[in-house]
Amino acid sequence: MHFPFELLANAAVSGLLLGGFYAAVTVGVAISFGMLDIVNIAHPAFIILGSYITYIVNSTLGVDPLVASVIMAPAFFLLGAAIYQVYYLAFEKRGQESLRGLAFFFGLLFITEVALILVFGVDYRYVTAPYAGPSLHLGFLILPLRMLVPCAVSLVLLLGLQLFLARSFAGRAILAVSQDPVALRLMGVSPSRIKRFAFGLSLATAGVAGTLLIIIQPVEPSVGRDYIGRVFAICVLGGMGSLPGALVAAMLLGLVESVTSTFYGPSWSPAIAFGVLLVTLAVRPAGLMGR
Amino acid sequence: MSAPTLLAVEDLSKRFGGFVALEAVNFSVAEGERVGLIGPNGSGKSTLVNCLCGTLQNETGTVRFAGQAIDGLPAHRRVRLGIARSFQLPRPFATLSVGDNLRIPLLYAVDARTGVRHSKAEIDARCGELLSLMGLADKATRPPLELSQVEMRKLELARAIAAEPKLLIADEAMAGLSPSEVDDILALLVRLNERGITIILIEHIMRAVMSFSERVLVLVAGRKIADARPEDVVRDPEVTRAYLGE
Amino acid sequence: MGNGTFVLAAAVAGAAVFGLSLLIHNEYFFFAGYVVLQYIVLATAWNILGGYTGYVNFGTAAFFAMGAYSSVVLYKLVSLPLPVLMVVGGAISGIVGFGTGYLTLRLRGVYFAIATLALAVVVQTLIVNWDFVGGARGAYIMRPAQVPLFGNYIQYLFLVMLVLAVVALVTARTIERSRLGYGFSAIRDDELAAEAFGVPTLRLKLLATTLSGALMGMAGAPLPYYVTYLDPASGFNLAYAVNSIAMPLIGGTTTWVGPLIGAVLLGTIQQVATVTISSAANLLIVGLLLVGFVIVAPNGIVGLFEQHWRARRA
Question: Is there a contact between B91 and C201 if contact means CB atoms under 8 Å apart?
Fold first, then answer.
């Protein structure tokens, strides 16, 4: 019996490419949940929002998706800062983030998805770009550019963020606020200002991830829901605020999903991420590289 | 002839990642004793309390209460065995009234321990008693957020007393009180002790600790550096150097 | 009023509602009323774990659907009366609730919430891939020809759900005023302190999770007979998740009255909106109301009333 080696290899490769993209999707939550302790379960909805904005700009103005994302990122940053301000005043200050903060983000998730359905309907939307079609062929390996390019962009994004967090003052302030907000205050830095900045950053990555998503696959409003599980599974498995951990976990998940989907069919995909999450929470909640 | 040992702490250690909060702490407390625990901020006093009460679990060493090893027992079981503590930073139940805050230990520590289910009237009465003891009777139906800092500390102590412990650990219960209020609390603690309750008093107010305690433990950087009568501790050069100042 | 009196009053009120409804010869009323009653149960069940104990459950749809699908399974195997189906549905959902809790309640509340989200998707995927209950194609259920008691089958379903709603409300109120209720409140307000003063927090949280899940499962058990065609899309409808959270938060989470008000208000609005506007728009309204209330009126409608009375007395 001919073992489907080529099939497996290609499934693995596309899994890794997908995983690279998943890292871009998750990095925003690694910041908001892993470092700021804000459970923004609406993150995937903002990603889809980014996808749709990319679609509009691409289909009406013919702008290349990646160029669009560069313009979108600052807008999403401001949106994130605004949302954090509301969250802070309404919940964090009053100490009610656990129940009501969660409900707030759940509401945002819901509103965003339903609003998109009302405006765009449930048809799939896609973008046209020079790299959306062709593939690289390396021997028997097929590397679709529509997956290679987002994966590459994602890795650049992650590297950039990791350097920013480790080297710049603002970045280190973000790391500090997650560990010791009191010390930060003593240094004259307002924790809520740093958090606002970080949350804006988190949402900016969501915008970019949205662009990458619609390059990889056609998008419709409920696609976001599949990503809730993936995002939190990767975040927890990777060890909460750890960016390298998120990358490793993302690639792992991408690999498992791709191989399972190729050999057992795609209808099990949504459950894999959540299954991984449940198992991780039960067995090793600190994740692979957790602190 | 000395009283039997109520609490025995053997070789207790606790670390948080790389940081060693407590190292090889050894001491014992006899039944009915009044023990003071002092040390600079960050020396591990609250961590020690948390380990004794089960809020945190110690990594090594053993804690014995009334002869029984209690390592690994969750906090609610230790309260039922008879250890109660007040929190250094008050943690009232915000949506319950001041009176109902006392109801929790009455229902879940006392009733659970004795197996007796007191009626609502009996528990209300007991809440009232405790509140009067602390001078909070007029605030019984108010939410805890309306209390002043000082009143909240008193509520915190009242909650611990409500659990009817054999061992009461008062963690900086007197911070911010006026001298006469400090005396009131001290008198209250002495009365409780006369009724047989063993007390560990953690404080920065030296005159309170020294006048109240039969024995004083000194904790510095996670290690016990002294364990003697108050007058001896005050004269201990190592203690003076580390804590009391030259 | 004492508990016994309340049970009696609730039973009388329930009987009155049913009695009056028999005078209405509009079958649509029973269809719509069933949905509102169902939401009273779901909102009350959610609130026992969410409002009383402080642990958010995003997976209402999973517990609800497990009740519904257990009825489908039993329907294909053996013919059982509806009350028995409800007990089975409740038991299964209760056990799953216990299991989820056991795995995750030792962690922070946030992880429990995320785990419930995960549960909803996992259960839905399992059902979609399970051919015995029809998988993605769905299952057809025939209502029994013989209607127990009297009236037509829809009226019977209405009555059954009415009884369940009364049971749920009585349960919530009983808990609220009992020592269990104080324990839940302590956990919600400060779990660490609750544990430090004798509350067996893990045990109580497991109890809340199990009870909440069981009630949701019981609410789901009659669903196949109500819709006669059950498929995963309708059984796991996102509307259940958002409504079971929005109704208690909008009505008020600290008392049994809140979910009741929220369910009746929102449920009725939605029944009207679905017919007049569209079902997507009606969900948008719910989402907006949820976010609005959570920011502006965190204690819900009940809280607004209490503020108003306190201001008048002052």
Answer: no
